[in-house]
Write a sequence for this structure.
């Protein structure tokens, strides 16, 4: 057994480029605190501000209060998307929410992690995509590099560590296939 110890003093993520200037990131910090992480209710203003900071935002996007978005310039949202209260989009990499997808309250999209196999705790990042009609339920966690297939459903409190197949319901930690998602018009 190799008993090397972690040494966080050697951590170096200088390779990672979040995008935007330091001024843009600082400005976003304050705009985000006032308009997104607060109880501010006006969706149109939120959509405007996200676009102003480089996000691609479709029409009729609902963004509830107390939402945290790390970097709007790494966010692409389709039409008729719902983003619930206390959602955290920790998008160190690109996050794509395709049309009619839903992030229920408290969902966490986690694009970053650390390499536990390295004493240097190296940063790892991966894109996240919710395909059309995909739904991440309340208090779910979507891990780096995961794709929720078209109309897939991640149930309340579940953790997606791998991509979900279209039209399947997933549950648990780690999330496993439960049954086919049957929908009526």
């Amino acid at each position: 057994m190799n008993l090397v110890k972690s040494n966080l003093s050697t951590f170096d993520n200088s390779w990672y480029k979040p995008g935007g200037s330091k001024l843009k990131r600082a400005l976003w910090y304050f705009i985000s605190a006032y308009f997104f992480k607060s109880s501010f209710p006006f969706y149109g203003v939120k959509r405007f501000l996200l676009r102003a900071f480089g996000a691609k935002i479709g029409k009729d996007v609902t963004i509830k209060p107390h939402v945290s978005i790390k970097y709007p310039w790494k966010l692409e949202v389709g039409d008729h998307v719902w983003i619930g209260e206390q959602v955290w989009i920790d998008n160190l990499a690109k996050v794509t929410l395709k049309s009619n997808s839903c992030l229920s309250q408290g969902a966490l999209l986690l694009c970053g992690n650390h390499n536990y196999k390295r004493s240097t705790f190296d940063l790892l990042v991966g894109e996240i995509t919710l395909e059309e009609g995909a739904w991440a339920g309340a208090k779910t966690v979507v891990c780096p590099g995961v794709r929720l297939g078209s109309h897939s459903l991640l149930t309340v409190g579940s953790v997606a560590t791998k991509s979900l197949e279209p039209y399947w319901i997933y549950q648990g930690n780690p999330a496993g296939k439960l049954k086919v998602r049957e929908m009526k018009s």
In short: The chain has a mean pLDDT of 97. The domain at 20-180 is CATH 2.160.10.10 (UDP N-Acetylglucosamine Acyltransferase; domain 1). Residues 31 and 49 are 8 Å apart (CA to CA).
